[in-house]
Amino acid sequence: MSQRIKIKALLESEQTDINVIVKGWVRTFRNNQFIALNDGSTNSNLQVVVDFENTDPALLKRLTTGAAISVSGLLVTSLGKGQKVEVKAKQIEILGDSDPEKYPLQPKKHSLEFLREIAHLRFRTSTFGAIFRVRNSLAFAVHQFFQNRGFIYLHTPIITASDAEGAGETFHVTNFDLLNPPKTENGEIDFKEDFFGRPTNLTVSGQLEGELGAMALSDIYTFGPTFRAENSNTTRHLAEFWMIEPEMAFYDLNDNMDLAEELLKYVIKYALDKNAEDIQFLTQRLEDEEKQKPQQDRSEMLLIEKLQFCLDNDFERLTYTEAIDILKESTPNKKKKFQYPIEGWGTDLQSEHERYLVEKHFKKPVILTDYPKQIKAFYMRQNEVDANGRETVRAMDILFPGIGEIVGGSQREERLEKLEQRMDQMGIPKDELWWYLDTRRFGACPHAGFGLGFERLVQFVTGMGNIRDVIPFPRFPKNAEF
Ligand code: ATP
Ligand code: MN
User: Fold this and answer.
1) How many Cα atoms are found within 13 Å in the side-chain-facing hemisphere of 14?
2) Nearest to 93 by CA among 124, 72, 64
3) Which one of 68, 191, 209, 275 has the fewest beta carbons within 10 angstroms of its own beta carbon?
4) 401 within 8 A of 357, measured Cβ to Cβ
5) What pLDDT digit, counting tens, does each position of 233-287 carry?
6) pLDDT digits over 127-161, tens only?
């Protein structure tokens, strides 16, 4: 290993007048004298000062935006403003040229849409550098949070034969020759001949398998990729996204909500501490972007204030029924401003309703509980029918400003008859899920869990409007580039 020092460490160094070796990519080179060098370790560039009078002009020409270079020189206190220290170059080596005529990243502001088309290079921008450092910290903090509490990290399968939600938005997994799959006598595709001897798909959630783990290990969590073939071209849906799914034995819905709220606060605080500079940069970026908008569309808080606010306040907890009452009486509903007017009890909330509750009514994160049984999955614990004959389940969704649903969870139905009854009603094959039902046959206990969409969390913390900008290589309808 050479004595290379990363720019982050160098900028934090207390020492000056020492020889250093730095390596990175040229962001800009101005006046034939000042290189702004970045190696991804931090948002800040290092200023490298070139003694151009004593440098080969051919080398100076190759100091172009995007070039990879190695510099050895003296770390000195900087006289210029904007940086405490800089490196006076003694020797510069070009490791990889970058033709400025062809390099797609110019030293100017590019649109996020354009950068999505060159996702292989967008890591080199300040914005994406910041986003992916924050993403990294959040992932680490998730593990730290659970590990500190004795949770077991459980790897649930990526290929499954079950569709956890019964939503049917799955990607099939097969090794058939699609033009000529084996057929049964009836002319149907013969999945007995397929690799797994049955139809399989990419997982939409690790929950069902996670529950099996919790029924022995007490507290588990998964953190892995999930896949949904949903054709929604929204700013909050991906076809491949990462989900964190804890499952806890002996937890009820309140314990579940407490854990989710603590987790969110813990990881946001971790990123605020660890990535202060990146979040400051993203806050500024967002503020600049907001200035383009009309006053009434601008957010009341800066990104960093929004994050701090989220740490300092309890999430508002209320039932679906209470939320419907608020929405029914709300000004936009009375003035017919909602695209989907709130008419009665029982339908799912649209994102306009969630946003009203979070952004206008409570102005803070909200946890909605006890949703109508009709609109939720089969495994959620059924409440007693209420005085109005309403049937609800012990579900909870956490709604965040600007994001909408960030967490979906529930206390699980541990009573075998209730669960089987519900599966029958919903047409979910009990024989296929025999293993899931076994946990209700042998040592069933109250338990709960939730799913946190990792990209939605990264969106919240980075303030990015589009989920496609918080995952390195987004997968969405008609796109699997890179
Ligand atoms: P939505 O109503 O927003 O589609 P959902 O009800 O389908 O969400 P769940 O099945 O409860 O979501 O999944 C748990 C979490 O996973 C959600 O709260 C959300 O944070 C995240 N999530 C769900 N679908 C996607 C997706 N397509 N892309 C990214 N994250 C997602
Ligand atoms: Mn969905």
Assistant:
1) 0
2) 72
3) 68
4) no
5) 899 999 999 999 999 999 999 999 999 999 999 999 999 999 999 999 999 999 9
6) 999 999 999 999 999 999 999 999 999 999 999 99
Strand extents, DSSP E, 78-132: 85-96
Rounded to 5 degrees, φ, ψ at 419 are -65, -45
Tell me, yes or no, whether 2 lies in a domain. no
Q: Whose CA is nearest to atom 23 of ligand 1?
A: 453
User: Which of 51, 69, 104 lies at the terminal end of a domain, its last residue?
Assistant: 104
Asked whether residue 335 falls in the same domain as residue 273, the answer is yes
Calculate ∠ Cα 413-414-418, nearest 5°. 65
- As a whole number, mean pLDDT of residues 359-371 equals 96
Q: Which domain holds residue 452?
A: 126-169+204-469
452 in Cβ contact with 406 (< 8 Å) = yes
- CB-based contact 416:441 (threshold 8 Å): yes
For residue 113, the SS3 value is helix
Cα 236 to Cα 222: distance, rounded to the nearest angstrom: 21
pLDDT at 143: 99
Q: What CATH number is attached to the domain comprising 231? A: 3.30.930.10
E strand intervals along 54-203: 68-77, 85-96, 152-153, 159-160, 172-173, 200-202
The CATH number for 49's domain is 2.40.50.140
457 neighbors 265 (Cβ within 8 angstroms)? no
Kindly state whether residue 111 falls inside one of the protein's structural domains. Answer: no
Contact 141, 148 (CB under 8 A): no
Q: What are phi and psi for residue 100, nearest 5 degrees? A: -65, -20
Number of domains observed in the structure of the chain: 2
Atom 5 (ligand 1) nearest CA: 408
Sign of CA dihedral 222, 425, 406, 225: positive
Is residue 318, in this structure, part of any structural domain at all?
yes
CA-CA distance, 39 to 459, in Å (whole number)? 24
Amino acid at 72: S
Q: Which residues line ligand 1 (CB under 6 A)?
A: 165, 228, 230, 236-238, 241, 243, 405-408, 451, 453, 455-456
Q: Whose CA is nearest to atom 3 of ligand 1?
A: 405
Q: Is 2's pLDDT higher than 70?
A: no
Mutation test residue for ligand 1: of 202, 232, 236, the one with most atoms within 8 Å of CB: 236
Q: Is the pLDDT of residue 108 over 60?
A: yes
425 CA distance to ligand 2 centroid (A)? 22
**Residues 228 and 325 occupy one common structural domain:** yes
Compute and round to an integer the Cα radius of gyration of the chain: 27
